[in-house]
Amino acid sequence: MTDGAPSSKYETRVTEMRKRFICSLDGRLDAIIQVIDAESESTGGENHPRKLHRLLHDMSGSFAMLELTEISWEIRTAVVIAENADKLNRALTPDEKTETMAVIAQTRAIGTRLKEEC
Fold first, then answer.
1. Which distant-in-sequence residues (6+ apart) come within 8 Å of 86 by Cβ?
2. By Cβ atoms counted within 10 A, which residue in 25, 34, 78, 117 is the most buried?
3. Which GO biological process annotations does it have (predicted)?
4. Using one digit for the tens of pLDDT, what is the confidence trace for 11-57?
5. What's this model's pTM, rounded to 2 decimal places?
6. Distance separating alpha carbons of residues 26 and 6, to the nearest angstrom
């Protein structure tokens, strides 16, 4: 019987998963930048603002689930921007693009720091 504490094996698996997510961060951010740059293209029945919102939301949620809260909270700012554009079914405004790109740059910096700590 266990006392409810996570096993060493479980913690090792979670740690490895965190590392993989951190190492995949640049690619995920690059994919988001491609969607931002695509502006009004739609893919697979998903319009541009919806895809951007989904990518950012998924990223934030995944990092939160892995208790990488610093990245999750940083991305949440961009999630709100994309969510508002999605609700209005419109592309990001120039100011929203600038703010989202700043979030991406800050997120990349956090990822770089976290990679060094691994």
1. 49, 50, 52, 53
2. 78
3. phosphorelay signal transduction system
4. 999 899 999 999 999 999 999 999 998 865 555 556 788 999 999 99
5. 0.83
6. 30
